[in-house]
């Protein structure tokens, strides 16, 4: 298949492009800079100039491909409303281009905010509906497009998609530990996170693109529940720093923007995903990655 990928030079996108190329697919990546275009060319992929605000490029990329993987997001913490608005407009543009084509369209989402008090299941519908909701309600918008003749699939990522080169949440935790001289966890550290290695996440995206039925929600979760204290302890050991509890009232000052997320239990099951697609994660665990120096430059 010729696959059009947004976010193609990002953290998960880069691994996804590599996975698709290794599996014999052709890739066109949305590239918002000459550097991104050169990165794609070096891998043997094509580049389509544009970004999430360039709706015509999105339509052109989707129309010229056999399948679409949408991984890009502005992640502008200073303008969440604008980020959500851009996400919905981008998805609408892709859906318009794919209308009635039966082509697969895989869209990214996270586990945050899906349910409270238990691990999220693939059967749990996202509560984000409509333009004013989280990510502009793009997951539901996409899955509803099955009725428009599109093989729409959602992939929900664990809060930590980890590996060497990751610049996500764990990177912020390491930076906070270095800045403060202690590796912290919130309260008693019993909140839990799910995690998945980036190579396993990319493998799942390919499997879903190739064979998941329309309407499928996939969970990119290799480890369902890692206590946040265990994550802090692994960071402390890797950096040679003491480990301590951070009062919930002080998480913003200590952790910065990642504090609210580290205070929550963000977990999901992937049992249905594994059964449906015979997905079996093989990458290192999050704690193994931290211990091996993936986040400390070792």
Molecular structure report:
Residues 3-81 form the NAD-dependent epimerase/dehydratase domain. This is SDR family oxidoreductase. It holds the Pfam family Epimerase. GO terms for molecular function: aldehyde dehydrogenase (NAD+) activity. Strand 1, helix 1 and strand 2 form a beta-alpha-beta unit. By secondary structure, this protein is an alpha/beta fold. The mean pLDDT is 96. The chain has helices at residues 11-22, 34-43, 55-63, 80-98, 138-144, 169-180, 198-211, 228-239, 251-255, 259-262, 271-277, 286-291; strands at residues 2-6, 26-31, 46-49, 67-70, 104-110, 151-157, 160-162, 183-186, 192-197, 216-220, 223-227, 243-246. It has 12 helices and 12 strands. It folds into 2 domains: 2-159 and 197-220, NAD(P)-binding Rossmann-like Domain (Rossmann fold, 3-Layer(aba) Sandwich), CATH 3.40.50; 162-195 and 223-268 and 283-291, Alpha-Beta Complex (UDP-galactose 4-epimerase, domain 1).
Shape verdict: globular
Distance linking N and C termini: 38 Å
- Could you tell me the strand content as a percent range? 15-25%
Overall CATH architecture of the largest domain? 3-Layer(aba) Sandwich
The CATH superfamily of the largest domain is known as NAD(P)-binding Rossmann-like Domain
What is the overall number of helices?
A: 12
Order of adjacent strands in the largest pleated sheet:
3-2-1-4-5-6-10
Query: Can you tell me the CATH topology of the largest domain?
Result: Rossmann fold
Would you identify the regions where 5 or more consecutive residues have pLDDT less than 50? none
Biggest beta sheet attributes: 7 strands, parallel
Radius of gyration: 19 Å
Task: Tell me the helix content.
Answer: 25-40%
Average pLDDT taken over every residue: 96
Going by helix content, strand content and strand pairing, the class is: alpha/beta
CATH classification, class level of the largest domain: Alpha Beta
Number of strands: 12
